[in-house]
Amino acid sequence: MLLSPTDLEAIALTLRLATVTTLILFLVGTPIAWWLARTRSRWKGPVGAVVALPLVLPPSVLGFYLLVTMGPNGPVGWLTQTLGIGLLPFTFWGLVVGSVFYSLPFMVQPVQNAFEAIGERPLEAAATLRASPLDRFFTVALPLALPGFVTAGILSFAHTVGEFGVVLMIGGNIPGETRVASVQIYDYVEALEYGNAHRLSAVLLVFSFVVLLALYAWRPDRGRR
Amino acid sequence: MIYASFRIEWPGFSLDVDEQLPARGVTALFGHSGSGKTTLLRCIAGLEHAATGRLSVNGDVWQDSDSWVPTHRRPIGYVFQEASLFAHLTVLGNLRYGQKRSRSADRRAAQFSLEHAVELLGIGHLLQRRPAALSGGERQRVGMARALAVTPKLLLMDEPLAALDLARKQEILPYLERLHDDLDIPVLYVSHAPDEVARLADHLVVMDGGRVQASGALNDTLARLDLPIRLGEDAGVVLDGHVAERDERWHLLRVACCNTSLWVRDTGAKLGDHARIRILARDVSIAHEPKEGTSILNTLPAQVVSLGDDAHPALCLVRLAVDDKPVISRVTRRSADQLGLAPRQQVWIQIKAVALL
């Protein structure tokens, strides 16, 4: 029961997409989570809701709006064309943009919870020990929130691997470029190639289970705090 | 000198303080919870930003209408109620955290103070442990050492003993006293426990409802009869003296203070040691004559200074002067009337219990 080169290509693409997306999410999600965890602004509610939207929104809706925005007549499309990047839909980087939005709550929420659990006190203690705000963030907040980051990273990665609707809307089905594993399976089913669909589906099923198992089994020194 | 003036209006709480505090010795900020003492301390640390405020410490302005020095640039050490150690660092990592960040000119001094603090607080054997593996008392000692390791010019302590049980408290108090005796750093010490204040403070600031009710040298303030804040059973004074004699046979020490002597139980203090004793008002009785045939060890001549009300109408507080040192006594109004107590009257006081702190 070997996977075909097309399958392997789809899996490699999927892993590449999930890795790039997760790395970008660490950079984008962390400041948002930090802000949400500590702000008293009246914008906290609305921003939190926007971040959580992909949890409830049908992926096709998200994908549709992204397609329109990044398309030739959309503002982002105009911008990318002006900058000479071309259009993002139906490219790998278009998928990355879509995935970042789609998996954003899976990054922001665990990290936000971790930051909130730390509370004010360790940061105040660090301030009385001569640490500047940036210093406090990197030497106290980040290490103390580490378990939240691990959870967020695993969830974002796994969620991106399981993405389908958004990919289909803005990525289409270009082998090696936008045809990820979930789309490949869809193609197999459309073509009634159930055997192939079974093989690839089993791979994703096992992968998802192992990831979640790792997540639940991983309890870093919970007693420490 | 510390000059602190802050005004805060929060829903359900206000702080309005305008005080000069001595920048030497231990100043206790004393009051019930909600009296504003911790908020005042946080304002001084820069952890709370009072919109209107002015703060200068030994001439350096830390806050006024157009300047604000953030906490990490204030030369303070801060001890929190619950040690607040960094869980991801070892004890040594915690101690070094602040020490590493001290300004380079202070660094050698900081290295010295780290070693000194470790020794002073007896935590040398804990350095490689994680905070989670420490007892409450050990954690608090590490918290204190961490605050000292930054060579602060002002040490702020927010009820460092409040979260500990009695045994742990007794474990830490001696270290705090060593701090007091060994270090030449002014300390602001927030507390609601009269015994801690009596033991550690040189200067007392009594707070209530966000305002300062009384401020002055410890003994003058403790001996005031007009304070709206009542210490109740804990009303009393402290006297400073030194150990003058040891009676081996009866296990007693003679403490010389204010041109007189008091016998106390032998606590193992060395001859010549500084000794602080506490005399509670309820343990002081008044007589016209020095009585014989009594079990009471300490009988001293004194002069009545004034009489004041106590919480219960049957009782009154009498302020007396032993030499020039104040002592207060709690007696019933009936006794005061029968003795005909009046200011400037010469009497004898019998002190039932004297605690060497």
From TrEMBL, chain A:
<protein>
    <recommendedName>
        <fullName>Molybdenum transport system permease</fullName>
    </recommendedName>
</protein>
<dbReference type="InterPro" id="IPR000515">
    <property type="entry name" value="MetI-like"/>
</dbReference>
<feature type="domain" description="ABC transmembrane type-1">
    <location>
        <begin position="11"/>
        <end position="215"/>
    </location>
</feature>
<dbReference type="InterPro" id="IPR011867">
    <property type="entry name" value="ModB_ABC"/>
</dbReference>
<keyword id="KW-1133">Transmembrane helix</keyword>
<keyword id="KW-0812">Transmembrane</keyword>
<keyword id="KW-0997">Cell inner membrane</keyword>
<feature type="transmembrane region" description="Helical">
    <location>
        <begin position="200"/>
        <end position="218"/>
    </location>
</feature>
<feature type="transmembrane region" description="Helical">
    <location>
        <begin position="49"/>
        <end position="71"/>
    </location>
</feature>
<comment type="similarity">
    <text>Belongs to the binding-protein-dependent transport system permease family. CysTW subfamily.</text>
</comment>
<feature type="transmembrane region" description="Helical">
    <location>
        <begin position="12"/>
        <end position="37"/>
    </location>
</feature>
<keyword id="KW-0500">Molybdenum</keyword>
<keyword id="KW-1003">Cell membrane</keyword>
<keyword id="KW-0813">Transport</keyword>
<feature type="transmembrane region" description="Helical">
    <location>
        <begin position="137"/>
        <end position="158"/>
    </location>
</feature>
<dbReference type="InterPro" id="IPR035906">
    <property type="entry name" value="MetI-like_sf"/>
</dbReference>
<keyword id="KW-0472">Membrane</keyword>
<comment type="function">
    <text>Part of the binding-protein-dependent transport system for molybdenum; probably responsible for the translocation of the substrate across the membrane.</text>
</comment>
<dbReference type="Pfam" id="PF00528">
    <property type="entry name" value="BPD_transp_1"/>
</dbReference>
<feature type="transmembrane region" description="Helical">
    <location>
        <begin position="83"/>
        <end position="104"/>
    </location>
</feature>
From TrEMBL, chain B:
<dbReference type="Pfam" id="PF03459">
    <property type="entry name" value="TOBE"/>
</dbReference>
<keyword id="KW-0547">Nucleotide-binding</keyword>
<dbReference type="Pfam" id="PF00005">
    <property type="entry name" value="ABC_tran"/>
</dbReference>
<dbReference type="GO" id="GO:0005524">
    <property type="term" value="F:ATP binding"/>
</dbReference>
<keyword id="KW-0067">ATP-binding</keyword>
<dbReference type="InterPro" id="IPR003439">
    <property type="entry name" value="ABC_transporter-like_ATP-bd"/>
</dbReference>
<keyword id="KW-1003">Cell membrane</keyword>
<feature type="domain" description="ABC transporter">
    <location>
        <begin position="1"/>
        <end position="234"/>
    </location>
</feature>
<keyword id="KW-0813">Transport</keyword>
<dbReference type="InterPro" id="IPR027417">
    <property type="entry name" value="P-loop_NTPase"/>
</dbReference>
<feature type="domain" description="Mop">
    <location>
        <begin position="293"/>
        <end position="357"/>
    </location>
</feature>
<dbReference type="InterPro" id="IPR011868">
    <property type="entry name" value="ModC_ABC_ATP-bd"/>
</dbReference>
<dbReference type="InterPro" id="IPR050334">
    <property type="entry name" value="Molybdenum_import_ModC"/>
</dbReference>
<keyword id="KW-0500">Molybdenum</keyword>
<dbReference type="InterPro" id="IPR003593">
    <property type="entry name" value="AAA+_ATPase"/>
</dbReference>
<dbReference type="InterPro" id="IPR004606">
    <property type="entry name" value="Mop_domain"/>
</dbReference>
<dbReference type="InterPro" id="IPR008995">
    <property type="entry name" value="Mo/tungstate-bd_C_term_dom"/>
</dbReference>
<dbReference type="InterPro" id="IPR005116">
    <property type="entry name" value="Transp-assoc_OB_typ1"/>
</dbReference>
<dbReference type="InterPro" id="IPR017871">
    <property type="entry name" value="ABC_transporter-like_CS"/>
</dbReference>
<keyword id="KW-1278">Translocase</keyword>
<protein>
    <submittedName>
        <fullName>Molybdenum ABC transporter ATP-binding protein</fullName>
    </submittedName>
</protein>
<keyword id="KW-0472">Membrane</keyword>
